[in-house]
Amino acid sequence: MPAEHAENSNLQTLLSQIGAGLDQFLNFDHPDALHPSASWREVLDTPLPQHGVGIEEVTQELITQIIPNGSPVPKPGFTSFITTGSTTVATLASTAASIASPQRYMHTAFNFLEELSLQWLAEMCGLGNMRGIYSSGGSVANLVALGGARQSAFEKIGHDPAADGVNRPVSVYASQECHHTIQRSGGVLGIGRRAIKIIDCDNKGRMRVDLLQNAILEDKAAGILPMAIVANAGTTNTGAIDPLQRIGEIAKEHSIWFHIDGAYGLPGILDSQVSHLYRGLELADSVIIDPHKWLGASVGVAATFVRDRQLLYRSFTQEPADYLEGSVEQEDNSRSVIEHSLDDFGIPYYDFGVELSSPCRGVVVWALLKEIGVEGMRKRVRRHNDMARYISKFANEHPNLEVLSEPTLSICCFRYVTSNSVDLDRFNQTLHRRLVRENQYMPSTTRINGDLALRPCFIGARTNQAQVTGLLNSVLRIGRELEDTVNTTLK
Ligand SMILES: Cc1ncc(COP(=O)(O)O)c(C=O)c1O
Questions:
Q1: Strand 131-135, strand 302-306: pairing
Q2: Are both 320 and 192 inside the same structural domain?
Q3: From the CB of residue 218, how many other CB atoms can be counted at a distance below 10 Å?
Q4: 82 C-beta closer than 6 A to ligand 1
Q5: CA of 242 to the centre of ligand 1 (A)
Q6: Is the pTM value of this prediction over 0.90?
Q7: Residues 434, 324 within the same domain
Q8: Backbone torsions φ then ψ of 384, nearest 5 degrees
Q9: Which of the listed residues 369, 388, 420 is the one where a domain comes to its end?
Q10: CA 265, CA 410: separation in Å to the nearest integer?
Q11: Distance CA 341, CA 337 (A)
């Protein structure tokens, strides 16, 4: 009965056992393997162990009970929401970092890759020389960006909101399709969730700039400080891209911080069919991207980019702490040769955002880009956008399918239609539940102008055209079965 963790055990053997379990989990030829086995809950639901069982038994339980009963998210047929599984190279890089550099600070190769990979991301996504910081996801990345916006808006009126709190009402303008973490950021930053002024969209899910302009003028007349405009480069619902150029110009005209939420859609700039929609990116004061979405990073990797990282410093810096004094020589960071990793803390990311302890995320992005390069990413983004375009074309030509929202990026919202007089929302909801229970093709649903739609979003590196064909065939088959049931009931 071990009382200590087995730190001198053979990592290589144990990782290779877990690797074999994961390979089996990802074995696409056996989708049924993901059906939850009846017994795993009983096996796992045990009292707090007073004495340990040892690492071998833990490893075995991981392999036999836990991994096989994991999530459908990394499966190629999973196209719900905007989430996917870690690619193999990302898993390797984050495992390496968890052991070799548990923190992103100090002068290590990992700290170096933090900055290098941010520069690579900025270059790939057309962000010029914007500087970045990683965080755990789009939620925090938006929060950090809006922290910069708050600092900028209040400093212009001679006030330090990070030190003294906000002293007058502000507005943040965002479209009705903005991600709901924008409102939460308002709450966390002390400006209030209601400070987020929702601007209606056109029928393609894009912010209406005429309404934006009116809202700004009304607020200015009422003495409310316009703090930021949030535009979407790929909405969560349909992938719509707001008119970035026009919105950016309005932001400049009124000296308002311009933030672009590209958590999902920023990599879309790599697809020449839609890259023109990203014009205006150069006007942004902050932009976010989630490498853990389209780029295939392990979950927990997002980035905020800003023009002026010192603004983030003023917004998020911590107070000095005695325990940080003297352990590290930081006077001379111009030295090209650093003798020890504790000679320098490296770039103080912990003062640019909300996390002190943080995993090294840069190495994950570095590994992804190093493995397949920009051209590999471009190919994947195009493939996924083409898949959404394929669904749209197929559905537009099929009498039993209707496109409810044409794709901009890799989302296409559509539904099954029938000449029977049925409630189409209920019909498609039932179809969706059956589809998901079959466990092979798993889009989510959404509402488009009030109508329930099936909403596949293609971002998974393992997801290919075969899943599109399979999804369409399954939707048509289940739709016909449901129609037969309706007809039998009507007889
Ligand atoms: C546009 C957009 N912004 C922000 C987020 C939040 O990102 P995360 O889930 O990584 O916190 C999402 C999530 O899907 C999103 O689609």
A1: antiparallel
A2: yes
A3: 12
A4: yes
A5: 16
A6: yes
A7: no
A8: -70, -40
A9: 369
A10: 9
A11: 11
> Are residue 252 and residue 287 in the same domain, yes or no?
yes
Q: Is residue 4 part of a domain?
A: no
Please tell me the distance between residue 122's alpha carbon and the centre of ligand 1 in angstroms: 19
291, two tokens: 């490498």
Assess whether the C-beta atom of 261 lies below 6 angstroms from ligand 1: yes
Ligand 1 close to Cβ of residue 183 (< 6 A): no
Q: Are 107 and 355 in contact (CB under 8 A)?
A: no
pLDDT 10s per residue in the chain (491 long)? 888 999 877 999 999 999 999 999 998 555 554 555 668 899 999 999 999 999 999 999 999 999 999 999 999 999 999 999 999 999 999 999 999 999 999 889 999 999 999 999 999 999 999 999 999 999 999 999 999 999 999 999 999 999 999 999 999 999 999 999 999 999 999 999 999 999 999 999 999 999 999 999 999 999 999 999 999 999 999 999 999 999 999 999 999 999 999 999 999 999 999 999 999 999 999 999 999 999 999 999 999 999 999 999 999 998 888 888 888 876 655 566 668 888 888 899 999 999 999 999 999 999 999 999 999 999 999 999 999 999 999 999 999 999 999 999 999 999 999 998 999 999 999 999 999 999 999 999 999 999 999 999 999 999 999 999 999 999 999 999 999 998 877 66
Q: Is the CB of 179 under 6 A from ligand 1?
A: yes
**Any ligand 1 atom below 6 A from CB of 219:** no
**Cα(179) to centroid(ligand 1), Å:** 7
Domain that holds residue 395: 374-490
